[in-house]
Amino acid sequence: MPRASDSAYSEIKSWIQQGEVPPGGLIDEAETAKRLGISRTPVREALLRLQTEGFVEIGRGKGIRVLPLSSTDMREIYQVISGLEVVAVSVLARSRPSSEQLETLFEAVRRMEKAIADGNVSDWGDADEMFHRELMRLSGNRKLYEVGCQMRDFALRAHMVALRLQTDEYRKSSTDSHAELIRSILSRSGTVAAECHFKQRLRGEDALVGVVDKFHISTL
User: Fold this and answer.
1) CA dihedral sign of residues 192, 188, 148, 23
2) pLDDT-derived band of residue 1, with 50, 70 and 90 as boundaries?
3) Cross-strand pairs, 65
4) HTH gntR-type domain spans which residues (predicted)?
5) How many domains, the chain?
6) What is the value of pTM for the model shown?
7) Are residues 42 and 124 located together in one domain of the fold?
8) Are residues 182 and 208 in the same domain?
9) CB-CB contact of 144 with 92 (8 Å)
């Protein structure tokens, strides 16, 4: 059974990631404890953990504020994630996986294709998130997966906003690129697969950060 502070941490982080508490918004410790049905101590522990991870800022006498991300922050986070994923792709390809071992990646692409057909941007974003987390998990490098997921957690709110600003054409092209990456991994050339993914990541970074700048969104 998870500790109360762990449960509070997961709940509050979800509120931040889903935009329930907007960038710059305040979190009231007492109200949060009441909402979660727990004492203030585990809520405080959770908030201190979220502050350490950069999600909130606990200001003396100024409340607990959700920290916003700028487009520069996004680009820097994407670059860290790209570095981790390129290594994951190289390791995974060199392990010579079978199609069956990559089934979760195939499933993510199928979900992306269905979301495009249904016109459901949120489902597409969820499937895209699944793909990238699975890509790191399948590398077998637990530390890489742990750090990569932390980075994706941190960027999730801003990432989803940027995805919603993108066009259907972008989502179709991105889905095709995800499928191409699976084929590249199955080719069993770690170098080729890593290079393929690095180029895809650069295009994605420019597109997502670019659309945020285009709409003059200063914080996410």
Assistant:
1) positive
2) low
3) 26, 57
4) 2-69
5) 2
6) 0.86
7) no
8) yes
9) no
- Residues forming beta bridges with residue 58, ordered by sequence position: 64
Calpha distance 211→43 (Å, rounded): 36
Calculate mean pLDDT across residues 202-212.
85
Range of the domain at 210: 71-214
CB 175 within 8 A of CB 116: yes
Does residue 145 register a pLDDT over 90? yes
Q: How many CA atoms lie within 13 A of 73 on its CB side?
A: 18
Q: Last residue of some domain: 18, 44, 66?
A: 66
- Please give the order of strands across the beta sheet that includes 63-66: 26-27, 63-66, 56-59
Q: What is the rounded CA–CA span in Å between residue 64 and residue 58? A: 5
For residue 162, what is the domain's CATH number? 1.20.120.530
Determine what percent of the chain is predicted with pLDDT higher than 90: 70
Rounded Cα distance between 63 and 117, Å, is: 44
* Euclidean distance between CA atoms 71 and 170, whole angstroms: 19
State the virtual CA torsion across 143, 193, 107, 99 in degrees, nearest 10: -100
Query: Does 76 share its domain with 48?
Result: no
